[in-house]
Amino acid sequence: MDRPATSGCGGLERSGSRAAPAAAVLGFFVITLDAVIVNVALPSITRDLGGGITGLQWVVDGYTLLFAALLLWAGSLSGRRSSTLERHREGEHHDQLDQRRPEPDRAVTPRRRDGTHRAPTTIWVVRDGDDLFVRSWRGSRGAWFTDARFTHGGHVPAGGVSRDVTFTEEDDPAVYDRVDNAYRTKYGRHSGYVEPMVADTARTTILRLLRR
Question: 76: which of 11, 53, 103, 187 lies 20 to 30 Å off by Cα?
Answer without folding.
Answer: 11
